[in-house]
Amino acid sequence: MKNRNIFLKSLNNLTKNIIYNKTNQYSIMLIIATFDIKFKTNQEKIEQILQHFGLRKIQNTTYTGDLTKIELKDNINENIKEKDNILLIPLCKKCYSNKTVHKRNISFKEDYIGCF
């Protein structure tokens, strides 16, 4: 009985850790990435990274797609230069559904609402 209680307690702690990691670090989310990069070669490298992770270009220096915080953070930190910057904006379902597009319409191959 004692071993069973220890096992259940360990299992409970493990479950809490998995849920914490899943919601705070590993969860897939819709991200908007926009950047200001001085040199074209650096910009092309960052664009390749964003495209590698499945983000799609929606404006000149703006990409969108689904990914985890950790995937992108690790790869961008390795490749971004000191004076450049990238802004990552996570979006929830409600925020995405409230988007507005003015003038030229931005079309997506799939609607992100179903991804949440």
Notes on the structure:
With 116 residues, this protein is an alpha+beta fold. It has a single domain, classed as 2-Layer Sandwich (Alpha-Beta Plaits). Helices cover 45% and strands 23% of the residues. It is built from 4 helices and 4 strands; from the N terminus they run αβαββαβα. The protein has helices spanning 2-24, 40-52, 69-79, 93-97; strands at residues 28-36, 56-59, 62-68, 85-91. A 4-stranded antiparallel sheet has the order 2-3-1-4. Helix 2 (40-52) packs antiparallel against helix 3. It is globular and about 35 Å long. The N and C termini lie far apart (41 Å). The model is unreliable at 3-24 and 109-116 (pLDDT under 50).
Tally of distinct domains = 1
Radius of gyration over C-alpha positions, nearest whole angstrom: 19 Å
Main sheet, how many strands, which sense, barrel?
4 strands, antiparallel
CATH class: Alpha Beta
Overall CATH architecture: 2-Layer Sandwich
Tell the overall outline.
globular
Structural class given helices, strands, pairing? alpha+beta
What's the SSE pattern? Answer: HEHEEHEH
Organism: Methanobrevibacter oralis
Subunit structure: Homodimer, forms a heterotetramer with a Cas1 homodimer.
Pfam families: CRISPR_Cas2
GO molecular function: hydrolase activity; metal ion binding; RNA endonuclease activity
Features:
116 residues; alpha+beta; Alpha-Beta Plaits; four-stranded antiparallel beta sheet; 4 helices; 45% helix; disordered C terminus; hydrolase activity; CRISPR_associated_Cas2; metal-binding
SSE blueprint and pairings:
Elements: H1 2-24, E1 28-36, H2 40-52, E2 56-59, E3 62-68, H3 69-79, E4 85-91, H4 93-97
Antiparallel strand pairs: 1-3, 1-4, 2-3
Helix pairs in contact: 2-3
Binding site for Mg(2+): 36
Enzyme class: hydrolase
Keywords: Antiviral defense, Endonuclease, Hydrolase, Magnesium, Metal-binding, Nuclease
